[in-house]
Amino acid sequence: MGNSDPSSVVPRHVAIIMDGNNRWARRRLLPGVAGHRAGVDAVRAAIEVCADAGVEVLTLFAFSSENWRRPTDEVSALMELFLSALRREAKKLDQNGIRLRIIGDRSRFHPELQREMEQAEALTAGHTRLVLQVAANYGGQWDIAQAAQRLAQAVKEGTLEPERITPELLQNCLTTAGMPLPDLCIRTGGEHRISNFLLWQLAYAELYFSDLFWPDFKHEAMRKALADYATRQRRFGKTSEQIEAEVRASC
């Protein structure tokens, strides 16, 4: 059973795997980087729709830790695109009250790109309309491993007893600490997998798959995904009957 008023059900946190840029470009006989450039417009659309709908956090999978395996010229083009997009879009985010957070291992990026990341985050740090998290050189396994390393270091230093380690404590050591867990994960491009994205955080997220390539996933497609989410019944291990009884009791 869905919600009686779907328009009132908005996910607090939406995560998106932006897939299909290369295939979009190949179908148009264009180089792969053209698809990534075209995908920037879809990013803007997702931000606009989520901000207008009242979503609190939008996390975009921009560059995975596995993407370094791609051809060198494509990786170089992606880094240039990332740098230029940061310089161009940071002021727009600031003007629209949107906070930027970048999650992932930054150490492999060029120092100039790292500086731009820090400056864009500092510029938008005080905003609350929407938190835009960009996952760059990110992998879900890496995120869990670095959290475990932090806890192991605390145990080694004697500031934490091993038996005090809980799922909540580990979760607070992830790069997304302080943010609500994703309610909805969208993947474009027709693939049905999560590709090492937010592995811990997506445990109870609703999954939505679209056959559209990312550059074609614009305002209408984003609104459709949010509308679909509003029809879902989230049970978190309970039965439908339990959820419906809780809803009746709250009325």
TrEMBL record:
Pfam families from the UniProt entry: Prenyltransf
Highest rank taxon of the organism: Bacteria
GO molecular function, one term: ditrans,polycis-undecaprenyl-diphosphate synthase [(2E,6E)-farnesyl-diphosphate specific] activity
Binding positions (substrate): 20-24, 36, 64-66, 68, 70, 187, 193-195
GO biological process: cell wall organization; peptidoglycan biosynthetic process; polyprenol biosynthetic process; regulation of cell shape
Cofactor binding, note field: Binds 2 magnesium ions per subunit.
Entry's Gene Ontology cellular component terms: cytosol
Catalytic residues in the record: 19, 67 (proton acceptor)
InterPro entries listed in its UniProt record: UPP_synth-like, UPP_synth-like_CS, UPP_synth-like_sf
Binding, Mg(2+): 19, 206
Purpose of the protein: Catalyzes the sequential condensation of isopentenyl diphosphate (IPP) with (2E,6E)-farnesyl diphosphate (E,E-FPP) to yield (2Z,6Z,10Z,14Z,18Z,22Z,26Z,30Z,34E,38E)-undecaprenyl diphosphate (di-trans,octa-cis-UPP). UPP is the precursor of glycosyl carrier lipid in the biosynthesis of bacterial cell wall polysaccharide components such as peptidoglycan and lipopolysaccharide.
NCBIfam families found in the cross-reference section: uppS
PANTHER family registered for this protein in UniProt: DEHYDRODOLICHYL DIPHOSPHATE SYNTHASE 2, DEHYDRODOLICHYL DIPHOSPHATE SYNTHASE FAMILY MEMBER
Protein known as: Ditrans,polycis-undecaprenyl-diphosphate synthase ((2E,6E)-farnesyl-diphosphate specific)
Species, as recorded: Pseudomonas lutea
